[in-house]
From TrEMBL, chain A:
It comes from the Bacteria. This is Hydantoinase/oxoprolinase N-terminal domain-containing protein. It comes from Galactobacter valiniphilus. InterPro entries: Oxoprolinase-like. GO terms for molecular function: 5-oxoprolinase (ATP-hydrolyzing) activity. One of its GO terms (biological process) is glutathione metabolic process. GO terms for cellular component: cytosol. PANTHER family: 5-OXOPROLINASE RELATED, HYPOTHETICAL 5-OXOPROLINASE (EUROFUNG)-RELATED.
UniProtKB/TrEMBL annotation, chain B:
InterPro entries: CdaR-like_regulators, CdaR_GGDEF, PucR_C-HTH_dom, PucR_C-HTH_sf. PANTHER family: CARBOHYDRATE DIACID REGULATOR (PTHR33744), DNA-BINDING TRANSCRIPTIONAL ACTIVATOR ADER (PTHR33744:SF1). Pfam families: GGDEF_2 (PF17853), HTH_30 (PF13556). Belongs to the CdaR family. Residues 426-482 form the PucR C-terminal helix-turn-helix domain. This is PucR family transcriptional regulator. Residues 285-381 form the CdaR GGDEF-like domain. Gene3D superfamilies: PucR C-terminal helix-turn-helix domain (1.10.10.2840). The lineage of its organism: Bacteria, Bacillati, Actinomycetota, Actinomycetes, Micrococcales. It comes from the Bacteria. Residues 256-279 are annotated as: Disordered.
UniProtKB/TrEMBL annotation, chain C:
This is DUF917 domain-containing protein. It comes from the Bacteria. Pfam families: S-Me-THD_C, S-Me-THD_N. Residues 169-350 form the S-Me-THD-like C-terminal domain.
């Protein structure tokens, strides 16, 4: 039995799918103004769901419970943007490691993300080349000095040139900052995959601003799970339409910021049984066009949340639908009566996913194949180490992405591994609220 | 019969067991693909110069970009090559998809390109040799043929029932066709023709109509058949000649007289001849046939072939302007049967400038000379059809004044008559009048009309120029008008 | 003319259109650099026709030369091109009066604008390629026999060099090596010449053409009308609309002296089922349909969104996506025998295939 939970702004939706594909839905109304109330609503809804099952027959074991918190996070961010800029601590401190500091302010490129205009930017010497060689020796002394200067309680983002291939300088500086100061948190850009310094920094910044709230939330969600379903794995849905351990929500919430549209695509696809090609999700508030490949939403390497530049998180591709297209669309379409329920269904169906993105230097086709194979094995191993049976793990995507300009032997490897296990056919229960109805194939 | 021996070497056949080592068919074209030759190319651009039906092997070159295989497929399609062989590891899904789209066979090879090319070329040679061996086997079969017809039947059978025939240098058929003549698409067929003998002075040929792709094999088949046919034809002629030798010696027969001088023997002569052994070479009841040919040499073989149809046991004797023969014929029925057979044999494919006459049935034997005279006369008068002497008068008319000449003369001499709207009735009436020896009533009876009608018409005809006054003009006028209306039933003069 | 922020946006779109590349970020960051200055009060970049210069004014061509690290990773600190222009002026003995981008597409166009705003130097409305080519010597200046040097080069680490080189192909080799050593890229100022020479040899008006193209692309016209207008403006032809079937970037072994094989993207023409192949190596080098070459270097092959007509990057070539492949001709000089020898299919290892339906 799996459970999917969508935490929306106006209501909480809960969906359960048992091993036979039977779907049950529960909606809990309410628009809480803070997370604490959210949790109460959630608890309420979960308890009701349990009662419904017990009233039914299944004493089935809940194996997974996946939370879709994207809408909440997004709302939180929007709220944060509306708060007065004078609030200190709103923007993290940025430490940039490069062979030389910018010659003037214009070259600090402060307009690539909101909040950069006001941010504290510190420069340290260091950085690596595309093949991982040091461009300039790391100014550790400067790092220690910096640690003392930064006021305590700050969140710091450390970005170094070339950290994708060699994160040593970032790690060393981070350590120095932690040892010599009292920051709340040090985030590293190399946790995010992009060959753009600015994109990594931006992503780390965004993530850092989210972790403040999500860390606590995640813990409380986990506690609730343990209480109600001690044997279930708690998961959180991610931007790519998959899911990962709930614990990751406190570390890298940026990967769940756009999970709701992705979950909607997954839910609509599961409801229709549509696994390949474009799908129109006719949500009266926000119609969406998604694309599926082998049952999974097609995912770009970056996406662009509102008012932020591109961030280095793999987001399910979706397009807004102009009215003209809506009327003329003759392909598969799902009418959504309860968007939250569709998201919850999507969360329940979201496969546990692991990504491996690396830059590899290769010279021959054999080396390339070997590098791909290695990345696939790594992804598989991670899933298995999380406790999933090796036979249920498969590689959904394995390819090279466009390499960096000018260097023919460096390719970006992209591997996505997922855990299968969803029953192939879902049967929606006839009880209201109906989450969606189909129209033509 | 093995179908494949009719066609060129097929790609699928070339790749058959045992499989060519290291060669894998990634895509085989839908239509049957002929392979004429194998080419090894080292540069993709060379594919643009190969001939059609060539199997192209591309030498592997590390400098070959992946798109070049796609370009090579395209070129192969444009040049109508049999297919493309490239290194196996150069073939990915896109090359297979393109091969399928263009319907060009694509094969992958894990062996070295020049080795593969040699192997394929050897196989092609073996396949072609296989074709040669089937011709050899055919040659043995045809050697067992005992007659021209049988030989032609065997040829037709080897070529899937194609229509086979033996013909003279001018294209005149010397024997009936064997096999079916496909009327449906005659223009699509190719005519393959081979002379019977390179030194054959008669220029006879054996021909067959086949589909274009079968033509080369058909030619080999005919080349194997020609000597056999030549022998059969010569043999038949020789036999005929040999058989005719003791039968007839014309001088002996005629006693040195020319045919038209021959008359019926007096009873005394007949009696004398009857008793004397060896005197009358034609002892039993018979009829004489005379065949006159303007170009005897040219139509000789054709005449013989047809003669063999109606009277195989009777030899033809050659004369200076044709042939004569004496056919046993004891009863009128036999006579009639022979006449029909003769007509049939020579009517099927008439020979130009050949006329045939035969004598009437005689009850008494021993009148060979006068029979011959009858046959000769009938032959002189006959046109396309063989003519019996007892119908000779009818033929005379035709000979004396051919219909077309008559028409022209009448148009010139009697323009008013020809222009008259009632012309046909007028002519009919005049002819009936003349046929009734000038009797109006007789003519009226003949035509089934009133005598006044006849009278009126005859007068009218005279007004229009038909001159019946002078006795000398009656016969010519009769002849002229008869020429214009030959269907009018005639009575014997 | 002074370019406004809107003009810069149009220019960006046009520059991206004529050079379908991996991602748009590099160009955007350079535009953002220009904007930073402008928002701090500096006047916008000045784009001048060549006739506005004195015959003897010194014009320099500036551009990035890359080997390894993208500029979005190792970002310029802001003094590299200033250093180059100073070094070049010193080597030539005269101050630089105007700049030109090395390529008429992609980042170098925006670079010229950023440098113009930073230094106040006007940008000549011209460039020596008319599109983007990978090598420094693939310019009309080379075709005209003009010397490439002296060349000034400066890197992100603060190192610099002045190269006394006259043969352009040598300059590319040396600059590539410098780029490698200087951290992944090098800023260059090259092809110093009088305005009079530039007037006769450079491809004039190319940058304002990019602004026009960009303005058209960013207009709210429906896709079909955009295509028609682009055809009239720049000879842009929509060749095929196809769905990406397979996008594989492979590294192939390259022999010494051989160009490495480009990667191949396979698409399916939905309307007619034809097999479409794109050969890609930083740019799109060749377009084949059903095995027949329909466009190849130096033709400009780029991608547009079928619905909106927006410019797409190579990142949009993911399986299942439907794109419009469009082709426009490069400057006529590239179709001469010398032009084809320098920048035609053979120069890119694409062989001497006949192109159907092309001049």
């Amino acid at each position: 039995m799996r459970i999917g939970v969508h935490l929306g702004n106006e209501r909480v939706a809960l969906v359960s799918i048992d091993d036979g594909g039977q779907v049950c839905t529960e909606l809990v109304e309410g628009s809480p103004s803070d997370n604490g109330q959210q949790l109460d609503l959630l608890a309420d809804g979960l308890k009701r769901l349990v009662r419904t099952w017990k009233a039914g027959q299944s004493g089935a074991q809940v194996r997974r419970i996946t939370f879709d918190v994207g809408t909440l996070l997004d709302a939180g961010m929007a709220g944060a943007r509306q708060r007065p800029p004078a609030e200190a601590g709103a923007t993290p401190v940025l430490v940039r490691i490069a062979p030389r500091p910018p010659a003037d302010r214009a070259h600090e490129l402060r307009n690539s993300a909101p909040g950069l205009q006001r941010a504290q930017i510190h420069h340290l010497f260091g950085g690596h080349s595309a093949v991982g060689e040091e461009l300039a020796p790391l100014d550790l002394g400067g790092a220690t000095e910096l640690a003392r200067r930064i006021s305590p309680g700050q969140r710091i983002v450390v970005t170094a040139v070339g950290s994708l291939t060699n994160p040593q300088h970032e790690l060393a500086v981070g350590k120095a900052l932690l040892d010599g100061g009292q920051p709340t948190e040090v985030s590293y850009s190399h946790a995010y995959f992009s060959t753009s310094f600015a994109a990594r920094e931006r992503t780390a910044m965004l993530n850092s601003s989210l972790t403040e709230t999500t860390a606590r939330f995640a813990t409380e969600l986990a506690a609730l799970c343990r209480e109600l379903f001690p044997l279930a794995r708690p998961l959180v849905s991610t931007n790519d339409g998959g899911s990962t351990s709930l614990s990751r929500l406190s570390v890298s919430p940026v990967h769940s910021l756009a999970s709701s549209p992705a979950a909607k695509i997954v839910g609509a696809s599961a409801h229709l049984g549509h696994r390949e090609g474009k799908l129109l999700i006719d949500d009266p508030h926000q119609p969406l066009l998604g694309q599926l490949l082998d049952g999974l939403p097609v995912v770009g390497s970056r996406y662009s949340p509102t008012e932020v530049g591109l961030i280095a998180s793999r987001g399910a591709l979706s397009w807004s639908v102009p009215d003209a297209t809506l009327a003329q669309w003759s392909g598969p379409r799902v009418h959504v009566t309860s968007p939250e329920a569709v998201c919850a269904l999507g969360a329940a169906c979201a496969p546990v996913t692991e990504w491996v993105n690396t830059m590899s230097t290769i010279k021959t086709h054999e080396e390339f194949t070997a590098a791909l194979r290695m990345a696939e094995n790594r992804a598989h191993a991670r899933l298995v180490s999380l406790g999933y049976a090796p036979s249920s793990v498969r590689t959904a995507e394995s390819r090279a992405e466009a390499a960096t300009f000018g260097h023919p032997n460096i390719v970006a490897i992209r591997v996505r591994a997922v855990v299968d296990g969803l029953p192939t056919h879902l049967a929606t229960s006839p009880d209201p609220p109906t989450l969606a109805s189909q129209q033509g194939a | 019969m093995n179908r494949r021996s009719h066609e060129q070497v097929d790609l699928a056949a070339l790749l058959e067991a045992p499989a060519v080592a290291g060669l894998r068919a990634e895509y085989l074209a839908q239509a049957a693909t002929r392979v004429e030759s194998v080419a090894l190319v080292s540069s993709i651009d060379d594919v643009t110069t190969v001939r059609a039906d060539t199997l192209v092997v591309v030498a592997d070159d590390p400098g070959l970009g992946p798109w070049m295989i796609s370009a090579a497929l395209r070129y192969a399609w444009e040049r109508r090559a049999s297919g493309l062989v490239v290194a196996q590891d150069r073939i990915s899904d896109v090359e297979k998809a393109l091969a399928e789209r263009l319907d060009v066979s694509l094969l992958g090879s894990s062996a070295e390109a020049s080795k593969v090319a040699i192997e394929l070329a050897m196989r092609l040679g073996v396949a072609k040799a296989g074709q040669l061996s089937s011709v050899h086997q055919f040659g043995r079969r045809i050697a067992s043929a005992r007659s021209v017809d049988e030989a032609l039947r065997i040829v037709a059978g080897e070529l899937d029932g194609a229509s086979a025939r033996l013909e003279s240098a001018e294209g005149l058929p010397l024997a009936p066709r064997q096999g079916k003549h496909d009327h449906q698409a005659p223009e699509e067929r190719t005519l393959v023709s081979v002379p019977l003998h390179p030194r054959n002075a008669d220029g006879q040929r054996v021909s067959v109509e086949v589909w274009p792709h079968e033509a080369p094999y058909a030619e080999r088949v005919l080349e194997a058949t020609a000597p056999v046919l030549s022998a059969l034809v010569l043999e038949a002629q020789l036999r005929a000649m040999r058989d005719s030798l003791p039968a007839l010696s014309l001088p002996a027969l005629t006693g040195g007289r020319r045919p038209w001088e021959l008359t019926a023997p007096t009873p005394g002569e007949a009696k004398a001849a009857q008793g004397a052994p060896g005197q009358d070479p034609v002892a039993d009841a018979h009829l004489a046939v005379c065949i006159l040919a303007k170009h005897r040499k040219r139509v000789g073989a054709a005449v013989h072939q047809r003669w063999l149809k109606c009277a195989p046991a009777t030899p033809l004797a050659r004369t200076s302007d044709g042939w004569i023969a004496f056919v046993p014929s004891a009863t009128p029925a036999e006579h009639g049967r022979f006449a029909r057979a003769l007509r049939l044999a020579f009517a099927e494919e008439p020979l130009p400038d050949v006329s045939i006459g035969y004598s009437r049935h005689r009850d008494t034997p021993g009148e060979a000379a006068s029979e011959l005279s009858e046959a000769w006369l009938a032959a002189r008068v006959a046109d396309a059809q063989p003519l019996c002497f007892d119908s000779v008068t009818a033929g005379v008319l035709h000979r004396v004044l051919p219909a077309d000449l008559a028409r022209e003369l009448v148009t010139k001499l009697l323009p008013e008559l020809m222009a008259d709207p009632g012309r046909d009735e007028l002519v009919e009436s005049v002819l009936a009048f003349l046929d009734s020896k000038g009797s109006v009533s007789g003519a009226a009876r003949l035509l089934g009309v009133h005598r006044n009608t006849v009278q009126t018409r005859v007068r009218r005809a005279e007004e229009l120029g038909v001159d019946l006054s002078a006795p000398d003009s009656v016969l010519p006028m009769h002849l002229l008008l008869r020429g214009v209306r030959p269907e009018v039933p005639e009575t014997t003069l | 003319m002074r370019l406004s922020e809107a003009d810069l946006d149009h220019l960006l779109e046009g520059a991206l259109f004529t050079s379908c590349s991996v991602s748009h970020e590099w160009c955007e960051e350079l535009r953002d650099t220009a904007l930073e200055y402008m928002r701090a009060g500096a006047p916008g970049p000045e784009l001048l026709d060549i006739s506005a210069f004195e015959d003897t004014d010194l014009i320099a061509t500036i551009g990035f030369v890359n080997k390894g690290q993208p500029v979005t990773e190792l970002r310029p600190v802001g003094d590299e091109f200033v250093t180059c222009l100073e070094l070049l002026a010193e080597a030539v003995g005269r101050p630089v009066r105007g700049i030109m981008p090395l390529a008429g597409g992609n980042a170098n166009v925006l670079l010229a604008m950023a440098i113009s705003v930073q230094t106040g130097l006007p940008v000549v409305d011209a460039d020596p390629m008319g599109r983007i080519f990978p090598l420094v010597n693939q310019t009309v200046f080379t075709l005209a026999g003009l010397p490439v040097g002296p060349v000034a080069a400066a890197g992100a680490l603060g190192e610099s060099a002045v190269l006394q080189i006259s043969r352009p192909e040598r300059a590319d080799h040396v600059l590539r090596s410098l780029a490698d050593e200087f951290g992944g890229w090098v800023a260059t100022a090259s092809y110093p010449m009088d305005a009079a020479t530039a007037a006769t040899s450079a491809l004039l008006g190319s940058l304002s053409q990019l602004i026009s193209i960009g303005s058209l692309l960013r207009s709210p016209l429906p896709s079909a009308q955009k295509h028609a207008a682009l055809r009239r403006l720049a000879g842009v032809k929509q060749v095929v609309r196809a769905e990406v079937a397979q996008a594989g970037w492979h590294a192939h072994p390259s022999l010494p002296g051989q160009v490495k094989f480009p990667s191949q993207v396979i698409l399916n023409d939905l309307a007619q089922g034809r097999v479409v192949q794109l050969q890609v190596e930083n740019e799109i080098l060749m377009l084949m349909i059903d095995g027949s070459v329909r466009a190849s270097m130096p033709d400009i092959i780029t991608l547009m969104d079928p619905e909106s007509g927006a410019v797409l990057s190579l990142e949009h070539l993911w399986p299942g996506n439907v794109v419009d492949v469009v082709v426009l001709p490069a400057a006529p000089a590239w179709y001469t025998p010398e032009g084809l020898a320098l920048a035609g299919p053979e120069a890119f290892g694409l062989g001497t295939h006949r192109r159907e339906g092309r001049r």
